[in-house]
Amino acid sequence: xxxxxxxxxxxxxxxxxxxxxxxxxxxxxxxxxxxxxxxxxxxxxxxxxxxxxxxxxxxxxxxxxxxxxxxxxxxxxxxxxxxxxxxxxxxxxxxxxxxxxxxxxxxxxxxxxx
Amino acid sequence: xxxxxxxxxxxxxxxxxxxxxxxxxxxxxxxxxxxxxxxxxxxxxxxxxxxxxxxxxxxxxxxxxxxxxxxxxxxxxxxxxxxxxxxxxxxxxxxxxxxxxxxxxxxxxxxxxxxxxxxxxxxxxxxxxxxxxxxxxxxxxxxxxxxxxxxxxxxxxxxxxxxx
Lengths: 114, 164
Fold this sequence. Notes:
The structure holds two protein chains of two kinds.
Chain A lengths: L6 E7 L2 E7 L7 H13 L4 E5 L8 H16 L3 E5 L3 H9 L7 E3 L2 H4 L3
Helix pairs in contact in A: 1-2
Chain B lengths: L1 E2 L4 E6 L5 H15 L3 H22 L7 E10 L5 E10 L23 H8 L2 E6 L7 E8 L20
Antiparallel strand pairs in B: 1-3, 2-3, 3-4, 4-6, 5-6
Helix pairs in contact in B: 1-2, 2-3
């Protein structure tokens, strides 16, 4: 089977880039999210918001992708914020004890100032 | 707790495309066995993580190697569903089961979380080498029903023989 892709919507407004993946983020699809995050971070925006409204499921490959993005963001002085995380997705961050490492807020509006 | 034997045995190739199908199968069957939404989601997560580990580390991301997934309900002496045992087998290179461990979570870095997640959400986890010339590893993991799904959300289940 060919490499599976997922829809990732990227928006730029001022110094903020917002990335909104849609669908399950697992080993088959996390490379698409990784590519979108790398592209966004290459421009070193002030703020990178990952809107998880459209993500019902994430496994550790998705979490690893976001950890990698967080490390890159910190090196480039970009503030990385995760928002609109569903309970099922949040639970894997809690199991991995990463819920305190990321800035996680309820909505895209709150992400603008978090 | 005893097992009814294997009720489902699925062979798949080591292609990540099929992870979602394996998750949905395991999640749906777990719900029917009496697990809550959260419990069935945790079982699906454990299966996903275990499959990912086989694909990435066992088969070095080759997409055409075999993986077998077996699902066995477990029940008590009155034949009431008590949980589920999932067995994953492969023909990947063998490793010392003692070396399959969770990593230190204080270190924030990508990767290496799969084994920790599996051990966290399942009640019993056992890795062993598969016997035979084909080699490979065998992972057996069991989760017990602690918080049943609300009434009406489960079917009669394979243990309730003689029911409606």
